[in-house]
Structure formats: structure tokens, C-alpha cells
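Milestone 3.1: sequence recovery, worked example.
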């Protein structure tokens, strides 16, 4: 799919050092190594040193722009960007560490204004924005035809409201222009790079199982989730980036539902661990609003030929191997 991007194109990526970027950039680098007719690449990052620590050869493939969207909302024009992937977001670690709620909104607002300015400058043909399933608000019907029911006044709605604001800014900016926008509403994920010291249950469970420690379920375990391997996620994002006349909103995730309690027992079984599952029934921490059922409807993705190649068991094993090293 990346072969349709050539020397006449310039790809701009925001948020390339996050979880999705850890999988996307190696795919791009492999493509660049194998094709002479390749696009120009520019990456916007809050920290060049962090980006280079993650990808030491990054400057071989890409120009780097260091910018903090909490402080700025303008990317230098005149670089003839044709394709943009907007993945800039407050990181999960920052959220876990108590990031200011308004800063989550501000980052999405400013980064989307920056892209709006590039769109209006002309030349941008296609944009992919990684939004979130939380933009649907309080619902159990996560389908693309569902309007948002977000309680925007809730203290923890900043991220969801920021995602919706970014969706609006980018959609409004592409009106009457030869520029296509695809909004990827992303759900729950698993990856070898998933943080295992914060509030991601699946990462915590796998870490504990690898070390034969108690697998702690802090809640009552009844919440329902599903997990897409980020290898599949980035393939879907590349599809959206390279497919003409793509649909405006697409759910990105997996629809194989599992309760948190059953997930704990699944991890124990898959890894043949001596751990004991301990369900605490504690009150859920309110880093974000609690979602009892957070499983996307991906029938639209299937109708477009998109599939998930990684199943949950294989993804659990993949992360466990990283933690066993």
C-alpha cells in the first residue's frame, strides 16, 4: 500500500514516538530501504532526543521538527506536505502521572489548528487523524453511524472533548478543498511496547504472569474490552492514508469481547503461569470516565477488506517475550 507514495509526496507525522509510531516508523523505514521512488518524510516531535533514542537512524529517513503543542499551534508552511498522519496526544504515562485535564484538550486543539493552517495553505491531499472510541461518549453502541453522547462538562471529558474538537476542526478545514480526511476512532490495544507499570490492565496482567506474581484485578472484573494488536492497527492506518475516497470515520480495533476477569485468567492460562488471580473489587480509579463495555463494531472495516491477523493469545505471548528478556 505504501508503494503509492512516491517522490512527489511529502508525509508529515505528528506523534511518531507514541505506541502507534513505534510500529509505524519501522514499516516506513523498511519501505524506504526497498524503494527508490519514496516520499519525503517529516516528523514533528516534542523531544528530538527522545525520538532519536527510540529510533537512532531517524534522521537518515526524516527531517525532524521539535515542537510542543502546549506552547504553539503553527507548523512552518512552505514544505508542500501532501499527506498527514495526526497521532499527537497526551501519553498514557502522562495521564497516569496526573496530567492536567485541560492540557489534554489544549494539545489536541493546538495541533489540529496547526494542521488546519497547512490545509488552508494548499497542497495537502489526505489526512488520517487517530481519534478515539471515547469520542462516542456514554454508549454501548460503538458504530460509526452513532452520534456522540459525550457529557462534555464531566471533569474527565477533556480527552474525549479534545478528540471531538480535533475531528471538527479537521473536517471543517477540508470542506470544499481537494483534501480527504479519515478519522480513525481507536479503541484498546496490545503491543510489545505497551507500558506495563500504569493503568493498562492487560499489560499489568502479563507482567505479573511472567514473574509468577499475583495477577491483581483491582475492579470487580466485569468491564468488557477487546484488544487489537498494534501491528494490525498501523496496517489499517496505512490503508486509510493510501486509499482514495476512503470513508470519513472508521472504528479501529478488535471485536472479540472479553471481561477483565476472564482476561486475567486467559493470561494465566496462555503463559502457563503459576500466578493466582486476585479480584479486589476496589472502586475504579477515575483517570478517565469508566466505560463498562468498550468494544467497537468493526463491520464497516470488514466490508472494506480490513482484517486482524493477530489473535489475543498470540499478542499476549508477544508482549510476554519482551518482558522475559
Amino acid at each position: 500500500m505504501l508503494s503509492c507514495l512516491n517522490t512527489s509526496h511529502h508525509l508529515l507525522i505528528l506523534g511518531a514516538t507514541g505506541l502507534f509510531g513505534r510500529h509505524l516508523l519501522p514499516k516506513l523505514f523498511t519501505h524506504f530501504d526497498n524503494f527508490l521512488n519514496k516520499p519525503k518524510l517529516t516528523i514533528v516531535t516534542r523531544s528530538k532526543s527522545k525520538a532519536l533514542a527510540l529510533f537512532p537512524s531517524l534522521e537518515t529517513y526524516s527531517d525532524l521538527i521539535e515542537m510542543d503543542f502546549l506552547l504553539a499551534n503553527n507548523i512552518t508552511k512552505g514544505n508542500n506536505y501532501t499527506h498527514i498522519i495526526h497521532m499527537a496526544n497526551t501519553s498514557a504515562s502522562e495521564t497516569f502521572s496526573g496530567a492536567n485535564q485541560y492540557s489534554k484538550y489544549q494539545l489536541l486543539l493546538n495541533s489540529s489548528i496547526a494542521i488546519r493552517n497547512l490545509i488552508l495553505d494548499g497542497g495537502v491531499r489526505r489526512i488520517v487523524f487517530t481519534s478515539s472510541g471515547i469520542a462516542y461518549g456514554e454508549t454501548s453502541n460503538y458504530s460509526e453511524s452513532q452520534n456522540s453522547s459525550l457529557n462534555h462538562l464531566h471533569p474527565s471529558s477533556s480527552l474525549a472533548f479534545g478528540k471531538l474538537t480535533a475531528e471538527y476542526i479537521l473536517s471543517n478545514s477540508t470542506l470544499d478543498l481537494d483534501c480527504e480526511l479519515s478519522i480513525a476512532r481507536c479503541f484498546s490495544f496490545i503491543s510489545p511496547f505497551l507500558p506495563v507499570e500504569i493503568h493498562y490492565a492487560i499489560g499489568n496482567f502479563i507482567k505479573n504472569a511472567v514473574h509468577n506474581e499475583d495477577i491483581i484485578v483491582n475492579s470487580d472484573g466485569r468491564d468488557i474490552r477487546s484488544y487489537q494488536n498494534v501491528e494490525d492497527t498501523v496496517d489499517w492506518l496505512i490503508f486509510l492514508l493510501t486509499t482514495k475516497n476512503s470513508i470519513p470515520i472508521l472504528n479501529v480495533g478488535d471485536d472479540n469481547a472479553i471481561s477483565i476477569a476472564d482476561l486475567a485468567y486467559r493470561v494465566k492460562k496462555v503463559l502457563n503461569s503459576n500466578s493466582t488471580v486476585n479480584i479486589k473489587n476496589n472502586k475504579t480509579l477515575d483517570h478517565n470516565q469508566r466505560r463498562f463495555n468498550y468494544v467497537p463494531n468493526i463491520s464497516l472495516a470488514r466490508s472494506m477488506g480490513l482484517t486482524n491477523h493477530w489473535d489475543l493469545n498470540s499478542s499476549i505471548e508477544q508482549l510476554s517475550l519482551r518482558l522475559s528478556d
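The mean pLDDT is 93. The longest helix spans residues 101-121.
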